[in-house]
TrEMBL record:
Domain spans labelled Amidohydrolase-related: 41-345
Annotated organism of origin: Saccharothrix longispora
SUPFAM superfamilies in the cross-refs: Metallo-dependent hydrolases
Superkingdom to which the source organism belongs: Bacteria
Name of the protein: Imidazolonepropionase-like amidohydrolase
InterPro entries tied to this protein: Amidohydro-rel (IPR006680), Metal-dep_hydrolase_composite (IPR011059), Metal_Hydrolase (IPR032466), Metallo-dep_Hydrolase (IPR051781)
Amino acid sequence: MVIRVRGWALPHGEHVDLYADGDRWTTDPVPGVAPVAEGWLVPGLVDAHTHPGAEAPGEALDDELLRAHLRQHVRAGVAVIRSPGLAGEPPPWFGTDPDVPRAWHAGPWLVQHGQFFDGWGRRVEHAELPAVAAAQAARTGWAKVVADWGVDDAPVPADVLTAVVEAVRAVGGRLAVHTQHAAGGAAAVVAGVDSVEHGMCLDPDLLHDMAARGTALTPTLSAITSTLATVVDKPEGPRKRWYVDGATAHAPLTAAAAEAGVLVLAGTDSAPHGRVADEVLALAAAGVHPHTALAAASWAARAYLGLPGLEPGAPADAAVYAEDPRTDLRALSHPEAVILRGRLVHRS
Ligand SMILES: [Zn+2]
């Protein structure tokens, strides 16, 4: 079945009239096909940091829950997810079934002994980390290393991360690294990883290095800010001080990253799923320009993952809005229509 959408295509706002017969946009008209939606067209949204398929840390991957989470993403206009860490091996339909987003994933989190959530991730010795990460990246394109965890935990050293980057690149893969402490963040930037996840407590002086090396930042700002609201009631101590200071500085850090030319990606890291619009709002509230905040959840994130936008030959994803969503980013939560792989999968 041929589908047609018409309207103003972001990022540039030119008027387009697009058809898809299957999973590719074309401008070749098909007689007798009326548009399923008209308005402002955004290439399908991207949640670049989400862990669907488990409700709480440590729980096993549940296929039914996974599909439910992915459908929540689709209803919110999300056509693409990146999962930097999953609770288990995803089923074959993950990322491919018609009703679920395209997906990139990094398999289990690769973590140091004595760190991270019990029951999640794979504990790996430093000496084994490059080979284990490369094997994962060879399978799924990405590996994810948790470079730091608790306040008193030693981070993965920069030379180890550098060796991991080299091993992962050697198989054509990319490396995402979790950091929430200054030392771990510095090690990740020095190593030249592909994406820094969270980046809380990152030294702002390193942002220019990140921009120069093409290291992306997925600040998961709305998740960190909402956790901050619960941490302020906790007893005083080093752990609380770390979180309050880091989370409080995180919005200005994120805005400074965008200003410095770092590619910022929108990632929610959180339940409920399908709330990437909240992350875009958080980015804008932090001072990221609305156009850039939207790019972080759509065309810029798609380009980062190798997917073109609303152009002939591109994968046929789109979210359609009645108004230009940049003028009121709250509208992002309510697409008029969602097209995924050339199919209308949701209509408001
Ligand atoms: Zn995460």
